[in-house]
Each structure stands twice: as structure tokens, then as C-alpha cells.
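Below is how a single chain appears once it has passed through the pipeline. First comes the sequence as given, then the structure the pipeline wrote out for it. We keep one example in the README because the format questions we get most often are answered faster by looking than by reading.
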Amino acid sequence: MTSVASSPFSPRLDIRRFYEGFAAPVTELDCGQKCAPYNASGKPFCCDICHAVPVAFRQEWDYLRPRTDLWHAWRGDECACEPVDPLTLQEQTPEHLTLLACLGPEHCQREFRASSCREFPFFPYITADDRFIGLAYEWEFEEKCWVISNLGCVTSAYRAEFIRTYDVLFEKWPDEYESYYATSEEMRAFFAEKRRRIPILHRNGGFYLLSPGSERLTRVDPSAYRRFGVYKEEFTTETRRTRRREI
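Resulting structure:
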């Protein structure tokens, strides 16, 4: 969950209902098994605090702490090389959020996953003219996350739950909307500099590419999306195998 400024207003959230309404898996297969072989730790990148530090609403932490031993407060000293400077990350974390660390994927209790686990690798994309149109991905994980290279595998159930969850959250918590508005703005600037279009999993069920300057949407087949790093090579190898079988 990306956020850029502390929030003076924190509405009371029903965390149990929040979790129950946002529980669908991202893909039908276990995507963690796809990326784990490429991580030196053998863990899925999203479940490895040495690559991605989970963040949760403080209300979530209040809910989780008496119900599970899965989580503890992030200390910033549990990895040989932290993904970011611990002090800097603490200073950049808004007051209504807290950094957490878990026991690892082998001990995961899915019903107690934090909101940042449930949304990864996506965030709500908000246009410059103030419309929450769908899901965009955390672009700094392009080389690591298998899902980002296989967006067509994202289930319609997950997309629907994601959108419904954030529709409700934004209605209750305008500051969270502003936070993701800023993140979307940052993504547009990054993709404009790279002369690339932004993949969008639209709330209407379609797959699109968005021009970062004009925000013009072009509907595409998800197979047209880019693949990155080892997943690009993996796709090329599988395509060759398929062609051989067809011959």
C-alpha cells in the first residue's frame, strides 16, 4: 500500500469485514511458486521482507495483534541488506500506517494477511481528472513479480473485490484517495520519461494501455502486455516449446 502523507483523519474501519471482502487470490495458480525460484531466499518476492516491507493501517495492527502471532513490528535489522534505509522508511511512513514483518510464507495465515499483502502488486489508479478507473501495478517490482508479466492471469473475482474494497475505503477516507492520486501521478511521470504506456486492469473488466500524457486508453489483449526479466525469457522458451509441439 503506497501512501505519501500523514493523515489527520482516520475513520474507524471494520477490519474483519474489510478482510472478508478482499480475500480472493490474485491468480488461480499459486503465483508465489512462479517467482520464488528466482529469489535467493527461495521465498516469493512479495513475502520476503528483504524485498518488500509490509505496511498496514494502525487499526489493522490493533486487530491482528491479539488474534495471531504471524506479525511483529518491523525492526529494520532482519536482512543482511535492507531494501531501503530503515530510518528513512520509518520517517516516510505516515502516522496512520505501521511497518510490519511476518514469520514468512511457510507460516502464512491467509485470513490474517495485511491489506498490503492483499493488494500486491497493485494499487488503485486514479486519473488526473479524478477518476478511479482500475488497477495499476507497483512498477518497481517489474523485474521480480511474476504477476506483472502475466496480467492476463489476474482473476475477475480479485479485480472485482479490489475495486469494491477501494470504492468503500475512498468514500470513508478521502485522504487515502489523495495518497493514491499522488502515486498515480508519480507513475505517469515515470512512464512518460520512459516513453511507455501504463497497463490498466480497468474496472469495466477490460485490459488497457494508458498514454501517460493524454491518459488516452487503448483496449488490448493482455497477451500484448510487456514481460520483464526472467519472465520474458520464460515466456519465449515456453512459446518455442509450444510451436515445436504444434509442428
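The two ends are 46 Å apart (CA to CA).

See the next section for the split statistics.
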